[in-house]
Design brief:
The protein is α+β, with helices and mostly antiparallel strands. It has two domains: 48 residues; 70 residues, Sandwich (Immunoglobulin-like), CATH 2.60.40.1120. The protein contains two helices and eight strands. The strands form three sheets. The chain has a four-stranded antiparallel sheet with strand order 5-4-7-8, with no helix packed on it. Strands 1-2 form a two-stranded antiparallel sheet. Strand 1 and strand 2 form a beta hairpin. The longest helix has 35 residues. It is globular. It starts with a helix and ends with a strand.
Length: 124
């Protein structure tokens, strides 16, 4: 970019100030450069998240199909042992967002009920 400062262009109408042209193009380049960088970062982040994380969701219900709130739900990644716990909501729903992809063991416990254990659940 320093070479641009040393060059001038003369025509019948006068001399064109290349310093101004340089700063205009630099602003345009910087603006486009920032947009490109932001796009690449967001695309790369989305790509990484798509490849390495998933979510596990479910509903805790009794034998009659009624929602059970306050159940302790634990998800354990079978390969790494990574564990996350949560309580089921008023509608019996539980969510484990942003979990490493792989097979899980899900354990559900609630007072007055036998514990439930499911293996091989895959987060997607």
């Amino acid at each position: 970019m320093r070479a641009v400062l040393l060059i001038s262009y003369q025509s019948k109408g006068g001399t064109i100030d290349l310093q101004y042209l340089k700063s205009s193009s630099r602003r345009l380049f910087n603006g486009l450069g920032l947009v490109r960088i932001a796009y690449l970062l967001f695309s790369f982040t989305a790509y990484l998240n798509a490849q390495t994380t998933g979510a596990i969701t479910g509903n805790v219900k009794d034998a009659n199909g009624g929602a059970l709130s306050g159940a302790q739900v634990a998800a354990r990644h079978l390969e790494t042992g990574f564990t996350r716990s949560s309580l089921s909501g008023e509608d019996g729903r539980f969510v484990f967002p942003v979990m490493p992809v792989g097979a899980y063991e899900i354990r559900i416990e609630l007072s007055g009920f036998r514990p439930l254990l499911r293996k091989g659940i895959t987060g997607k």
